[in-house]
Write a structure and sequence with these properties.
four-stranded antiparallel β-sheet, disordered C terminus, single chain
């Protein structure tokens, strides 16, 4: 079972997280990851606001995208989707919500696997927990996982004692690194100095753990933070990257673009670490509040 929400199908206007499974001349077929992998179609005219020569300019098989539902046939389980109607801000917000939904599902799944031996029994338990408890929780928090975390902190039983004990172990705070990548360029006479001044302004009053910016080739910059609250970290980095964009727009011939939206840095991102290592000699400046004994490196 991979349906995260009570409704079996999304409603018109909803944002959904999709995985592209097939690309054709008429558009791209995608699985709706939050709705039991039912398939929808992003028509070729709904892929981009700009004219495209090839569909693969916009999407490829296995790419994860956020789309908006534009029509639903519940009897035939047929869904039309639009990618071009989703702004970058809408996509970012929905991906954050999706990540919370996925994290909650992983907790439920691990719990089911810990007490049930057969796949059938595990699936039944997962469905039972969602239908009898999670989908019926009443609270004013942004997401059910936020409510669950709050209940765990207060040792409040929301399903049973065993589940509470399991969650208290699973939800122990772990420090994670959140990162995002953006391109910042300035074509006037100030050039790199203008970019450096903007980054220095943004990092002022933050320690290395709170905000750490490194340089990559091709005028790319990695914004990072270490935090125990993943979603708060994602929102913090997103805010700082948007702040950098606004500052660049104030400069004559300044330009910028977010190329990788904030996410958790995992072992699969070793390439970034290697690229940063290659740029160790590019020292710009240190955060104003960094420790006096810190080694010089490529931190902004």
């Amino acid at each position: 079972m991979v349906r995260f929400y009570k409704n079996e199908m999304p409603n018109v206007g909803d944002f959904v997280t999709c995985k592209i499974i097939e690309v054709r001349d008429i558009g791209s077929y995608a699985e709706l990851l939050e709705y039991d992998n039912i398939v929808g179609l992003i028509g070729i005219t709904e892929l981009s606001k700009q004219r495209i020569r090839s569909i693969t300019q916009v999407v490829n098989v296995n790419k994860i995208v956020v789309a908006q539902v534009i029509s639903v046939d519940k009897e035939r389980k047929y869904i039309d989707l639009s990618k071009k109607s989703v702004s970058s801000n809408d996509a970012q917000k929905h991906m954050q919500y999706y990540e919370k939904s996925k994290a909650l599902f992983q907790i439920i799944k691990k719990y089911a696997y810990s007490i049930k031996e057969t796949q059938e029994d595990r699936d039944l338990l997962i469905q039972h927990i969602y239908s009898e408890y999670i989908w019926n929780w009443s609270h004013n928090m942004n997401h059910n996982i936020d409510y669950l975390k709050d209940c765990v902190k207060q040792s409040k039983v929301v399903i049973n004692d065993d589940f509470l004990s399991f969650c208290q172990t699973s939800l122990k705070s772990k420090t994670v690194c959140i990162y995002g990548i953006m391109t910042l360029v300035c074509y006037n006479k100030d050039g790199i100095e203008a970019v450096k001044n903007i980054l220095k302004k943004i990092t002022t009053n933050y320690s290395k753990d709170q905000l750490y910016i490194t340089y990559l080739p091709a005028s790319q910059y990695v914004f990072k933070t270490n935090t125990c609250e993943q979603q708060d970290g994602v929102e913090f980095i997103r805010t700082k990257m948007e702040e950098a964009l606004k500052e660049m727009q104030k400069i004559d011939s300044g330009d910028g673009k977010i190329t990788t939206f904030p996410k958790v840095l995992t072992n699969e991102k070793d390439l970034i670490a290697k690229q940063e290592e290659d740029c160790k000699d590019k020292i710009i400046f240190e955060n104003d509040v960094s420790d006096e004994n810190e080694d010089e490196d490529d931190k902004y």
